[in-house]
Amino acid sequence: MLALFALMMTVCMGAIAEGFVSQVATAPENIAEEQVVRLLMSYEISEWNPLVPSDATTWANYIDSLVEYDNYGMCQPCLAESWIKSDDGLVWTFNIRQGVPWQYNDGSEYGEDVKAQDWVTTAKYILTPEHASRTADLLYIFEGAEAYYDALSRGEEGDWDAVGIRATGDYTLEFTLINPLPYFLSMLTYNWGYPTCTKYLEEMGDNFGIDPFSFLYCGAFLIEDWQPESIRIDVANPLYWDKEDIHVERIERQFNAEASTLEAELLLRGETTYADIPTSQLDAWINDPAREKLIRPSIPSGRSYWLLFNFWPNFPEQYDRENWLLAANNYNFRKSIYYAFDRIAAMSTADPYHPENFVMRTVTPPNFAAAAGKDYTQLGDLADITNTDQHQPEKGLEYKALAVEELTAAGAKFPIQIYMPYNTGIANNPERAQVIEQQLERDLGIDYIDIILEGYPDTDYLNVTRRAGNYSLMESYWGPDYADPETYTDPFAIGQKYNYIYMADGFGEATTSDDPEGRLGFDGGFWKNAVYDQMVIAAASEVLDLEKRYVGLANAEAWLINQAFIVPLGAVYSTGYLSSYMNPFESQYALFGMSGDRYKYQYVMKEPMGTDEFLEKQEIWEQERNERISAAQAAGIDY
Q1: How far is CA 24 from CA 292, 466, 630, in A?
Q2: Please, which pLDDT band fits residue 350 given cuts at 50, 70 and 90?
Q3: Cis peptide leading into 608, omega within 30 of 0?
Q4: What is the rounded average pLDDT of the residues 474-480?
Q5: Which residues, listed in sequence order, are joined to residue 227 by a DSSP beta bridge?
Q6: Helix H or strand E segment including 577
Q7: Main-chain phi, psi angles of 353, to 5 degrees
């Protein structure tokens, strides 16, 4: 029996929204007469096929998805007008919006409407190994999908009829999951959630997606002109199904390899709508009354950053791998780093005026998920971590004393050398690495630790550092793939390939039988039956009681942090300030997928929003968002 979920959701969410009067929208008197967005771009898109990349944001304004998110992060219909979910949560049936035309980039119609089969076409393309799509594994949540992909990989004929992705009518799309997923709707905002015109794909063959003129559009904007490393101009789609919510008329992008350093000055000259303010220029802006009123803090992304200990050292022998292993596997040593680390000092490299705005004490960011009227970071054991200042230098010295005693007995040599690579191609990263080195050595003593910094270029950075085990301690990060805290457990799960945690004394039986290189536990039982993994499995198995699920995941995250396997850092990577003629509280809000890159619902303002107005509206937005979430949860609605 199917529950009439989507129709209920659409009606209920509408009723919920009617009960609120938003105070975050752009005032009519501040709406610019010319609704044109002007941007600089410092890189060129090298891949135009929307079915191949893992990043779907390039096509966010060109191709619509089944669902989208409003400015409060509430899921709402898009190309799917409504949907129903089976009582066991395994079968989802979407009713596709009728009369949405496929279009060429010039706005002319191709002659086919968007239909349910177009999502089946997308899935089949991505699950074909020879296409080398990078999101095939995201489809393994569906019945038979992984088996189909594996069969084709072996050169066998896959059974597509056994895959739980099918069109049961021209405008009826059905998904069958292997297990219920409370966050399933949020997974629809990646490229496998895009439709692909079946007839056009067959017609184009290998020429599909070689440039912006060789795929079809069904979104809010069309590419009017594109010249590589020169310009890209988008125009509002006059045939868009929801064109009354499209206020921006044009998006003009100019290529400039020096965009990051030039765009602030160009914004002052009216040549761009948006500019990050480099930290090196921030003082000049803050101390100039005319410019100061044009800037505001940036909103942290969903990326979470932390300092990461390496339990599989593969850095140069000169830094004594065995000695590092003794230190890394010592609980008191890790805790000494945890409590001595000054996150505010580190984040001042991004925002020297309000670094506390970007400090995080958890892996999962605030405002990402909520249950029982509480933010996820205020649930279970995680609440104590969230509400306690982790920078406690005296406590760091207490753990240092314990570590010195234990490590000396184990034969360790002091100071412990800590090899710490950093990315020279990312803004503020070299400065932050230097601050971390100086601060930790000062507060813990150079008799205890010796941090060795080494810069690596941006090109292939992760492959030659973290993924190669070429570090002792380094800054690392993770971004969400869907709207559930479980997404932030992925880097630390058994069997993952990102080299976050390979082995720690006392946490399971190590094995080298499957690893010719002798790496303890790599993919062959590392952390077998580990506490953390079992906590995550138990919590994630709860798919009905959201509060119970989130409390379980919060407890697992708290355990990971309390063991100091990682040291939380912050939620922003580059500059902490920007200037923009766009209202950040009008844009679609989601820390995953492509929603945050869309220009739907937004107006270009007459003047940028300053810090005072930003902080005032941010407080209102957070309150209104929490009210909407609470109302949706009370109504039993997936949001």
Answers
A1: 22, 41, 19
A2: confident
A3: no
A4: 91
A5: 231
A6: strand 577-580
A7: -95, -40
Rounded to 5 degrees, what are φ and ψ at 596? -65, -10
Look at residue 2 and give its three-state secondary structure: strand
- Distance of alpha carbon 225 from the chain centroid: 30
Q: Provide the whole-model pTM.
A: 0.81
Nearest to 241 by CA among 448, 71, 466, 80: 80
Asked if pLDDT for residue 64 goes beyond 60, the answer is: yes
Count of Cβ atoms closer than 10 Å to residue 634 Cβ = 11
Residue type present at position 23: Q
Q: What is the mean pLDDT of residues 49-65?
A: 88
User: Got the DSSP string for 19-44?
Assistant: T---S-SPPGGGB-SS-EEEEEESS-
pLDDT at 325 over 80: yes
Is residue 287 assigned to a domain? no
pLDDT of residue 497: 52
Supply the DSSP string of 333-397, one letter for each residue. Answer: HHHHHHHH--HHHHHTTT-SS-GGGGB-SSSSPTTS-EETTEEGGGSTTHHHHHTS----HHHHH
The mean pLDDT of the chain is 88
Q: Do 557 and 593 sit in the same domain of this protein?
A: no
> Which pLDDT belongs to residue 635?
80
Same-domain status, 440 and 534: yes
How far are the Cα atoms of 79, 485, 507, 555 from residue 539, in angstroms, in the given order?
A: 33, 11, 20, 9
pLDDT of residue 353: 84
pLDDT higher than 70, residue 17: no
Using DSSP's 3-state secondary structure scheme, residue 77 falls into strand
Return the closest-CA partner of residue 576 out of 360, 282, 265, 368.
Answer: 282
Is 550 inside a domain boundary? Answer: yes
Contact 270, 586 (CB under 8 A): no
The token pair that represents 116 in the structure block: 């349910």
Closest CA to 94 of 70, 138, 64: 64
Are 202 and 339 found together in one domain? no
Instruction: Return d(Cα 188, Cα 67) in angstroms, integer.
Output: 7
* Per-residue model confidence (pLDDT) at position 516: 35
The CATH number linked to 124 is 3.40.190.10
Is 8 a domain residue?
no
Of 8-12, 285-289, 565-569, 633-637, the poorest mean pLDDT is in 8-12
Mean pLDDT of 399-412: 97
Does 493 lie in the same domain as 382? yes
Residue 498 is part of which domain span? 304-570
Measured CA to CA in angstroms, residue 207 lies from 203, 216, 429, 590 at distances of 9, 13, 40, 33
